[in-house]
Amino acid sequence: MDERSTTLRFVIRTPSAAVVDVGVDAVRIPGATGQFGLRPRAEPMVTEVVAGLVVMRVGGQERYAATAGGLVEVDRTACTIYTPFAVEGAADDVLEALAEVTEASGSDLAARRQLEVLEQRILHEIRHPPSTGRRVEGAEHG
Fold first, then answer.
1. DSSP H stretches of helix in 6-136
2. What is the pTM of this model?
3. Residue 138 neighbours by CB under 8 Å, 6+ apart
4. How far apart, in whole angstroms, are the C-alpha atoms of residue 85 and residue 81?
5. How far apart are CA 26 and CA 113, in angstroms?
6. How many domains does one find in the chain?
7. Which of 69, 128, 131, 134 gives 20 to 30 Å between its CA and that of 49?
């Protein structure tokens, strides 16, 4: 792709197929610290993608995909998300499909989701410990 190109090649890749492979004007991706946007000639990076909705801007129209999380690799001409599961379609449809897969009993994605919930609970408890009474060193008890 030409360095001066006005589109960014955007690919969502699962282990079995490329679910999306399209030139986009811009894309919004769910990251670990919130949504982030990319345009052509973006700075190269590799970062975490969390499960959620991906919004692609293609020729003035919005297209949608959902991923189960993974990694995104970006260079100046292309952006590729590597994920165990992805689906493309209408916003509500892709989010519903993602929810079904991640909640399926025995699914690796369901296990990953449970681990993420537990991790968030642990982080919350570390940051906001319960106040169960304080013990004062050196205080006499009678």
1. 91-103, 108-127
2. 0.69
3. none
4. 10
5. 28
6. 1
7. 128
